[in-house]
Every structure is written in C-alpha cells, then in structure tokens.
Design a protein that fits this description.
- It is a single chain.
- The chain folds into 2 domains: 190 residues, NAD(P)-binding Rossmann-like Domain (Rossmann fold); 80 residues, UDP-galactose 4-epimerase, domain 1 (Alpha-Beta Complex).
- The chain has 11 helices and 12 strands.
- Helices cover 39% and strands 20% of the residues.
- The longest helix has 20 residues.
- β4, α4 and β5 form a beta-alpha-beta unit.
Length: 293
C-alpha cells in the first residue's frame, strides 16, 4: 500500500514510517522544510513539500496514495492562543483529507488523545471531549469518524499523554525540559493523578495495524502503561537530573496546566484483543532512566 503520512519525521511519525516500510508499504511523507524532506528521504520515504496549512498539497498527497495516516500537529504552545491556532489548523487539514478520500473506501487513520473519565479508567468506547483546551480536536476527529457513512475507512488512534523513546517525548518530556529550566522536578497538585503512556515503537505498530485492519468508524487506544502517577514520573526525572522533586502550580505548564493536573488513566484492552496489538518496548518509568543529567 502507498501511504501518505503527515508528521512523518517527528518522534512518532519517524517510527510509523519505519514500521510501514519494514512491512512492505511505501510512504509519501509531507515535509514542511528542506531538513524534513532530507530526513524523509533518508528514511526511505518520498517527500512531498508542504505544510499542514497547505490544503491543496494535502489533497494532492491523498489523491495519489492508497491511504492516509495523519500525525502532524504543531507543538509550540509558548504564546497565548497558540494551542487554539494549532487545533484550528489541524481541524482544517483533516477535514480536507477526509473530503478527498470520500467515496474511495480507502483507509484514513487520524490521531487524538485518550479521553479522561472522572472516577475510572477510560476505554475505547468513551467519546472524545468536545470542550476545554483541546475540544476542537475532539470535534474534528469525531467528524472524521462520521465519514464512515461516506465511503471512507476512517479510524482514530488515541494517543496517551506521553509517547516516549529514549527518555524523550510527550508530557514527561515537557516535565524534563521545565525541570532543566527551573532546577526543580515539579508535578501539579499532590502528583497522584495518573497519565497513560506508550513507547513510540509500540505506537507505530498500532498505526500500521489500524491502517491494514481497522473497520470504518472505530477508535483504538495506543496505551501500554495504563497510568503512572505524575509524582512517580517527576521522581525519576529529579533523580536523573539531580534536582529536588516538589509540587508546583499548574500554571507552570501554561495553557496545558489543566490537562497536566487531571487524573486520566486509560485502558487498551479492546485494542489488544481486537487488533492483536501487544506492546513490547520499555515502560515510561523504565525509559526515563535514559535521561542524561
């Protein structure tokens, strides 16, 4: 299968591209810069120059391939309104991709976060949130899944708060970066809130399985670790960096503060049983041991 991949040179995307190529697929990778294009070529993919906001380029990429995996998302949340802008850009992009695929019965695998459900572990049957900081993303992915009635084999892989590899990536990676800057390994509140996690190489396998096998309108959880306490994550980071471990205000994490403070464990039982996915790589707490002082 020839697959159009957005975000194919990031932490998750590079693992997905390698997984696809290693299993007989070919890849057309969206590349927003010369450096990204060179990285795509080096991985064995064919680059298509353009950014997520270039809707005509997205249409062209989808038109010349057998399926689409969407992973691209702007992760710069440093300025006010940046998160809302990123969500709006992604929403327009995946709507465009979905329209191009309508009526073709081709697979379209998109991405979201795992939902949080007060008082219990979330499952694949739980709806995505449509309010709050990333509610727009939930609405956009829900709309894509609705394309099942229009001849698109659409499916969503829900990612946990931390997708990691060699101690880097996701919310835990942000905690590490902030700890280096502030010289404190912090956690919001009492740190008892739980975050799910997955190794990037395990997540890549699930994206391939979803592309190859998933039925239209379905959602899957790329969750290897159901929920590590944030305080435990901070303690590993603090030990590796030689820093004190303390509670810090949620505002330390900017617009992501409310999400950082939320208890959000998640299950992947249905995903494992249905698609035969089985994570094999190190857990988050094990992988954080790779952080260099």
């Amino acid at each position: 299968m020839r697959v159009f991949v957005t975000g194919g040179t990031g932490l998750i995307g590079s693992a997905v591209v390698a997984e696809l190529l290693g299993n007989g697929h070919t890849v057309l990778a969206l590349a927003r810069s010369e450096a990204s294009a060179l990285a795509a070529e080096a991985s064995g993919a064919e680059p298509l120059r353009g950014a997520l906001a270039d809707l005509d380029i997205l249409r062209a990429g989808a038109a010349q391939t057998d399926g689409v995996i969407h992973l691209a998302f702007t992760n710069d949340f440093s300025s006010p309104g940046a998160l809302a802008k990123a969500v709006a850009e992604e929403s327009a992009a995946i709507a465009t991709l979905g329209e191009e695929l309508a009526g073709s019965e081709r697979p379209f695998v998109t991405v979201s976060g795992t939902p949080s459900v007060p008082g219990r572990v979330s499952t694949e049957a739980d709806p995505l949130p449509t309010g709050g900081p990333v509610g727009g993303r939930g609405r956009a992915v829900t709309a894509v899944l609705g394309l099942a009635s229009r001849g698109v084999r659409c499916t969503a892989v829900r990612m946990p708060r931390t997708v990691h590899n060699q101690g880097a990536g996701g919310f835990a990676g942000l905690m590490t970066s902030i700890a280096r800057q502030t010289r404190v390994s912090g956690y919001p509140g009492d740190g008892a809130q739980r975050w799910p996690a997955v190794h990037a190489l395990d997540a890549a396998v699930l994206f391939r399985l979803a592309l190859e096998q998933a039925e239209a309108g379905t959602s899957w959880h790329a969750v290897a670790d159901e929920g590590d306490k944030v305080r435990d994550i901070a303690e590993v980071i603090g030990r590796r960096l030689g820093l004190p471990v303390e509670s810090v205000p949620a505002e330390t994490y900017g617009t992501l503060g409310p999400i950082f403070a939320t208890d959000q464990p998640s299950s992947s039982t249905h995903t494992r049983e249905t698609l035969g996915w089985e994570p094999k790589h190190p857990s988050l707490l094990e992988d954080l041991e790779n952080i260099r002082p």
